[in-house]
Amino acid sequence: MKHILPELPFSQDALVPAMSTETIEYHYGKHLQTYIDNLNRMIEGSPYEDMPLEDIVKMATGGIYNNAAQTWNHTFFFQTLTPERSEIPEPLRKALTGTFGSVEAFKDEFTKAAVSLFGSGWVWLAEDPDGKLSVMQEPNAGNPMTKGLKPLLTVDVWEHAYYIDYRNRRAAYVEAWWGLVDWEKVAERL
User: CA 129 → CA 53, 67, 125, 187, distances in Å?
Assistant: First the structure.
């Protein structure tokens, strides 16, 4: 199975000013494409060649895992962004409040995790099989699926996600990112 660059659910200039067209061109068009190209090259002739991407993420190790997880993580990340501000649907609001005390407390915890993750990686809102929510810091290509958890939301805190627009101001990037979250999609995953 050859993996291909997924289509963005918005135009490359739709997220301006929170994310510039140049950021999308590099982050989506170059970084994600490179992970996909590397993955396709690495799995050729291997047991992973015909596997769905999610299965590769759950089963692979080393370079194949890194490129598969980065492909999956980036696709998930971009599919969760929208230029349209959306309200948090009530079932998601209730779940966040039940776990974190309030939506604001959830956002605070998530933001602290995103800003404080040392080096590069991802911060996730994930759900366990019993429906319990948690915020997870995952370095590098980390993905909650490898721990049996269901990803609901993620922010990419690799420097390539924000350096063009925000330089070294990760906190400013995360603050702007909150305004791009498609809460309907997050709620659908719950």
Answer: 21, 26, 14, 16
3-class secondary structure, 8: coil
Give the contacts of 67 (CB within 8 A, at least 6 positions apart). Answer: 35, 36, 38, 39, 42, 141
- Count CA atoms within 13 Å of residue 116 on its CB side: 9
pLDDT tens-digit readout, 103-149? 999 999 999 999 999 999 999 999 999 999 999 999 999 999 999 99
Return d(Cα 12, Cα 102) in angstroms, integer. 33
Q: Could you tell me which residues are beta bridge partners of residue 154?
A: 124
pLDDT tens column, 58-91: 999 999 999 999 999 999 999 999 999 989 999 9
Q: What is the distance between the alpha carbons of residues 27 and 171, in angstroms, rounded to a whole number? A: 18
Is 155 within 8 Å of 122 (Cβ atoms)?
Answer: yes
Query: Whole-prediction pTM value?
Result: 0.96
Pick the closest to residue 140 from 54, 47, 61, 80 (CA basis): 61
